[in-house]
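Tokens in:
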């Protein structure tokens, strides 16, 4: 807008509702953020997954927290969009999209690959001078300086990769032998595995200084990620807590009650003024 075309500035105060309405909901969010939420929880999904992984969460997370699943391009409702295969570029794109919604209190939860993505977004947000998340919750993923728990993108053929996904609980066995289904899914998985392998290129292995409060979750029966590899996130934390919960690699789905009990207690502690003291539905 040029100076000549600028409209006069109204002296009337802008209401919170009008100000928030002016912020368009980004494509990466499956719904508009809720107004006046004390805390927003942005959730990042696992490799080969989508935002639908978090569909049950609003009914399990303490009601005052606004649960906002982040949908990466190239899957579910965004399946026609080009996918990313580099976590650094993905994080920068997400910060650009989400920045208007990151000015109020917020936290990140990332599951498996999503833990790396959430950490990369927090790092990109810090570089951009933005508001840091009140906490970074990471689940079922090794710290960046440890060997990535997921295999390289091209290690397995399609049948072997599908079997691997079934074995860790990330794919229904009914997909096995369904070439038409796998032909749509496996390219997404392979690009996500490339995201996981790009952490060194993105400079995420050694943080300049620990500036995040990190709460890590490890499944007691997770055959893919060792709890000590999850504990290694302590290197990246200003304060750190590790919680082992029942279940395997996808413990929020396999054994939800103990996990959400712990998550809700942590979220309540983050609330401004400690609003919403109830631990929620769990």
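Residues out:
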């Amino acid at each position: 807008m040029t100076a000549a075309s600028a409209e006069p500035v109204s002296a009337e105060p802008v209401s919170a509702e009008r100000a928030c309405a002016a912020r368009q909901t980004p494509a990466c969010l499956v719904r508009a953020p809720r107004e006046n939420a004390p805390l927003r929880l942005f959730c990042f999904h696992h490799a080969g997954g989508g935002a639908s992984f978090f569909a049950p969460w609003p009914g399990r997370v303490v009601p005052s927290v606004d649960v906002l699943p982040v949908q990466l391009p190239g899957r579910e409702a965004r399946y026609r969009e080009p996918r990313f295969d580099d976590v650094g570029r993905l994080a920068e794109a997400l910060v650009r999209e989400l920045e208007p919604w990151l000015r109020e209190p917020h936290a990140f939860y990332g599951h498996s690959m999503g833990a790396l993505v959430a950490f990369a977004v927090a790092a990109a947000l810090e570089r951009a001078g933005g508001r840091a998340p009140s906490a970074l919750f990471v689940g079922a993923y090794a710290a960046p300086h440890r060997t990535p728990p997921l295999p390289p993108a091209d290690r397995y053929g399609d049948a072997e990769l599908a079997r691997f996904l079934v074995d860790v609980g990330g794919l229904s066995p009914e997909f096995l032998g369904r070439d038409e289904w796998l032909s749509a899914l496996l390219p997404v998985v392979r690009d996500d595995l490339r995201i996981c392998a790009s952490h060194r290129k993105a400079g995420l292995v050694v943080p300049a200084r620990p500036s995040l409060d990190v709460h890590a979750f490890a499944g007691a029966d997770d055959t893919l990620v060792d709890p000590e590899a999850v504990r290694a996130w302590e290197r990246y934390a200003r304060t750190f807590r590790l919680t082992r919960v029942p279940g395997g690699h996808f413990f929020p789905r396999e054994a939800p009650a103990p996990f959400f009990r712990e998550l809700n207690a942590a979220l309540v502690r983050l609330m401004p003024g400690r609003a919403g003291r109830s631990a929620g539905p769990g």
